[in-house]
Structure prediction request, 342 residues.
Amino acid sequence: MTAKKKNVRRGRKGINQGFNELYEYAELAERSEMEAMKRKYIQWMLSHNFSQETIKTQGYNLSRFIGWCHDRRVLRPQEVTREILEHYQGQLIRSRKETGEAYSVEYLSRILSSIRGFFKWLAKNHHILYNPASELEMPRQASHIPHKVMNVAEVEAVLMQVDLSSPLGLRDRAILETLYSTGIRRAELCRLKYNEIFVDTGVVLIREGKGRKDRMIPIGERALAWIEKYKSDIRPALTTRTEEKILFLTNRGKAFHPLSLSNLVSDYVKASGIDKEGSCHMFRHTMATLMLENGADIRYIQQILGHSSLDTTQVYTRVSIKKLKEIHSATHPAAHLKPKKP
Prediction:
């Protein structure tokens, strides 16, 4: 038999093997009770008004877990034990990104939370006798102080990088000013609508922020001025029928994807040369920290940021060392004592 014929046969064998593996996996998924339960769980989430982003993320995390179970011929929720879940958790912890870095504790916690929520729902609805994930220990998250915070001069340096002679530069300046003035989340800015900016009262309506909660937040006069200039001079040329209500549009007339917005903001931060890496969330941290340093009550900052718990906002009290130093200097008896000369 010639080498060519051998290669043809090997190629056919490889194709057939790949087809058989796909067919076997599809057949396995069809017979998988866990896959069927996942679909019911997703339907339940839809009927209980969970956000599309939450449903998408949970569905993806569960599909990965169920696929891992399929590889081990675990097809029914009743077959999943705490030991199996701990094995999967261990594999997640050992897994690495393409860069070789370990995944963050926050990322791992989100995956495991999806699995815990799924099995809690299964037990509550009597699809399984007990919840094997109820005692699954979540990775401990360290309480980090946000270190990516700019001072006023650094913010202004970033804003000065925008080319205002370019139409898209005017849009970008309006975006940066909005992030700085409001501390709005990246996803919230991406879906911010044209009619949710109230110039007369100086407020922004955030619809269905985190936790699907609406809130009204203040916005400064300078940010409003740049938004109005963008709306009158640039936006009409970008508008399309499909995205006519979205405020900030790409050069193709579409709403920004969160990752695209992050890249845009990050490029301006890098160009400023401020020696700090960050994007949309750095503006959020900066706004909260600067307001606190200038005397804002932490409860007002909580409301602006849209935190459901004050504990989440309290982290900024540890960032704002300026006020702490002022109080220390004013009240500590040894704060101004000079060392004695030997």
